[in-house]
Amino acid sequence: MRPALPRKRAVPPLPVRDGLGPARVRLQGGPVLAELTARFGAPAGAKVLAGEVVDADGAVVGAATVLPAGASIYLYRELPEEVAVPFDTPVLYQDADIVVIDKPHFLATMPRGRHVAQTALVRLRRELGLPELSPAHRLDRLTAGVLLFTTRPELRGTYQTLFARGLVSKTYLARAVVDPAVVLPRVVRSRVIKRRGNLQAVCEPGVPNAETLVELSPASGRCPQSADGLYRLTPRTGRTHQLRVHMASLGLPITGDPLYPNVIDLPADDFSTPLQLLAQCIEFDDPVTGLRRTFVSRRTLANGEPGLHVPCRDGYRP
User: Fold this and answer.
1) Is 46 helix (H, G, I), strand (E, B) or coil?
2) Percent of the chain at pLDDT exceeding 70
3) Cα(215)–Cα(113) distance, rounded to whole angstroms?
4) Is 65 strand, coil or helix?
5) pTM
């Protein structure tokens, strides 16, 4: 018997169109036409005059519509010009409830900022014809690997809860320099904070909120003349940029990282140096079917094949 699902979220009054849901704007209050024009320019005002803006009940907002502060309106945004990410998004698994893909480097999980159509979510909605597809978790835009989506809104919270509660075993692979002075394996614990508007997350004093087991793969010891090593990273938490921050804190920044330890400004169309970080494997007990799920990336990191065969780690006890 399937377990009870969480209450379904409120449905926006406009449907998903070409892979994108409508934008929601919370109003400051007053004549809507004047407010949207003042805040977003003439094109937003033109949408009102064209009958392309609706309120939370789906009623068309007109030139004379006045709404109170805190009310919401919905409209389809104009897509910005984007650089196409020239890598595919292969599907590892798909059923009626979930879709699991092998995300490439440089592709954002979902729309944010200047990345809208060139995101895994929008691409998959279009390619698979699943307008209600939603991510159950996220991977950084520069990180490749296993990424899970749910096919219907009422399922999203069920799977998101697994990730939020740490009930998903996650294994990452990374390439970085080898420093004999860094004793491994070790568990790195710190307080990682990522503030809006800042590119980098930082470690701050206080109660740790991020924990990662860092191990050097045995494959790295086969070529002692090489300064490049393959690492297995097992996070117990999921803070933004956690693995990148923890590796940099050890003096082992991940190869190809444009943010840690230093910010490097790269052109939007430069795909020549991918971050050498791969979400290789996730494992969990499916909350809907009860089955044990294991999904493994088919991608490898640069400089060889050993990463393909590094086994998943089903949790750990430091």
Assistant:
1) helix
2) 89
3) 35
4) coil
5) 0.84
